[in-house]
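Review box. Two proteins, two foldings.
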Amino acid sequence: MSKKEGRVVIWPAYIDAARSRGQGRAISKRDAIDKPSIDEIIMAAMELGLQAEAQRDKHYPKEWWEKSGRVLVPKRGAKTALVKEIAKMIKKRRG
């Protein structure tokens, strides 16, 4: 895998409310958001004080035919907690 040491991958599918857990959603539907974009994930990570790196040409493994992209962020605690923080920040930004 092309992850850098000490970084975790955040796929938009992890926080997409339209997906089921089996389709890749990593947080509760209540915490998830509709149609998250790579740019929103990057902005939320930056607002949380994380250095985010976008990889727009990557394919989510469960949907290999679609380039959804992914974001690499420094590992900071549990991955699920980090994903929830990012989703919460996006909800806040959307108003």
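Next protein.
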Amino acid sequence: MVVLPSPAVVESPPPVEERTSSRRASYLRRAVVAFAVAGLALAVSTVAPLMGPLLVALVIGVVAANTPGVSRYVVGTAPRLDKLLLRSGIVLLGLKIAITDVLALGTSGIVVVLATVVTTYAATQLAGRLLGLERDLVTLIAAGFSICGAAAVAAVESSIRAKPRDVALAVALVTVFGTIMIGAVPALGSAFGLTDEQTAIWAGASIHEVAQVIAAASLIGAGGATALATATTVKLARVTLLAPVQIVSARICRSEDATRRGPLVPLFLIGFLAAVAVRTTGVLPQGALDLAASLTTLLLSAAMFGLGTGIVARHLWPVPVRALLLATISTLVAGTVALALVTLLV
């Protein structure tokens, strides 16, 4: 008698409903963890404000992704959710900006902002190319140092799809150099004989992060509300240029890599501009704006945690000397150009 081999048993994939339910549960778990980390980052930054919640959340993500036994629960579990958190935060960031406040700076203030941003971005791109650094890293540093630090880095990254290592390095550099400027700009403003208004405009036009600008403004003169309002308005005027810088950055990187696809003006950027328009109309009450500002920081911090979970820690050290040099050049260009224009125009 011939015994025929039994046919191999092929397991059928789980039903669509089961896969969808599992994916939703995974996203929910990741959202709970991400927002818990964002809350912790906010608490830490309250105690140590120079660190900033976005950097703290990024570091927590890196630590979690590189800890045995923990990494499998956080690495690559919900990439779409991470992008959604980031893009939602960028959209809400627009509610901090009213075009009327920017126009109130006058011609001289607007010229200072435009010239500083354009010069810093262009000089950083040129210096990065001369130093032989990768285009993506150079572009992230150029955006972060010329616009609004970690938030600009994250926004541009979502379009150019840079390596996680480059994102982490750009965020770390913009945080360190911006922190140095918190004390340097007010001290040099006093040494150069600038008025409180001039120093406040210089701080807003040259320091990288919004939180860093606020910290520096509190050290100007008697730390009054006028200097704080001026510096913050100038800084937010720089943030309005996030849209064109993001578009230029995407075009630059795609010109060197034809395989990159996607809309040149992503939907979240349109949402950002729409939020700016809504804020400008003045229809939202102050309570809603305050809530939106808190939610913006929470969403961006949660998104930075997600970015951190994709980073291999050993790839970050030692910090490339050429990257440090580029960050130094970018900071010096921003500070020097803004100072020269403030001295001449304000």
